[in-house]
Amino acid sequence: MDVIIQSAGAGRAAQAVADFIAQALTDKPNLVLGLATGSTMESVYEQLVRKHQKEGLDFSRCRTFNLDEYVGLPAEDPCSYHDFMRQRLFDKVNIDPRNTHLPDGMASDLNAECARYERLIAASGGIDLQVLGIGLNGHIGFNEPSSAFESRTRVQLLSQVTLDQNAPFFPKPKRVPRTAITMGVGTILEARRCLLLAIGPEKANIVAQAIEGPLTRMVTASALQLHSSCTFVLDGPAAAQLQKSGSYQHGIPGQSARTSLLSPVGTQLSSSASPRASLRSSPDTP
Ligand code: F6R
Known about the structure:
disordered C terminus; binds fructose -6-phosphate; 11 strands; 3-stranded antiparallel sheet; Rossmann fold; single chain; about 35% helix; 8-stranded parallel sheet; alpha/beta
């Protein structure tokens, strides 16, 4: 796992992630891109939209798979992740809507929908680059504490921490759905490359647990330690509780994060992460 600390600020950290996605898309126009929602991602998507408008970044052949969607919210609901993605990215770039995928939280058979989503990812050749945020309880996607590292796309009951974290995005906190469909930890670990962005002091403690703590199902982001090609991009406050911060890469203001800090895209996208062998030998894996 690589760790990059962008002390120049949250905007710079988000820019590093947007630069990396843009380069991956340029190198592989039919990139299979895994996407996240949440406040952390908003500035990443703003920058991707800017790159499309000002620099002609082309999404026409890109295929996307989002990590998760709430159960019980129609795609048209302004609180749904379908709507979040349309408003922040899809409606503002030249992506073909038919190439954008999120789980259907309104499916009559939710388990069948989860299986369909897994099949769709596999049929697309697997995810080349998975972008991630991290929840206050260490979740990736909606893989709440105690999720198995080998879990697949499924219906997940949301923890109280997550319900509280997401309540501000709903007009009435009581409207936050209690369940969501999420890619599993195992699904995420199969992406060829993972890129996690964390910003702000409230993430500092859980980021330190995910990077430097033990592998544990109680902090599902710690599973990323098993991935052969995963980078955490942090702003200074999110990195504040790392004990070994001297051994991580530090961003230089004004220098392109893509070229200076993140390892070359081409090699990463063609290599398979293949984390499952290490999963089997992990003593903490259920
Ligand atoms: C959302 C998702 C979540 C968020 C995480 C951080 O699709 O997968 O794991 O990335 O909850 O959310 P924010 O960025 O709002 O702090």
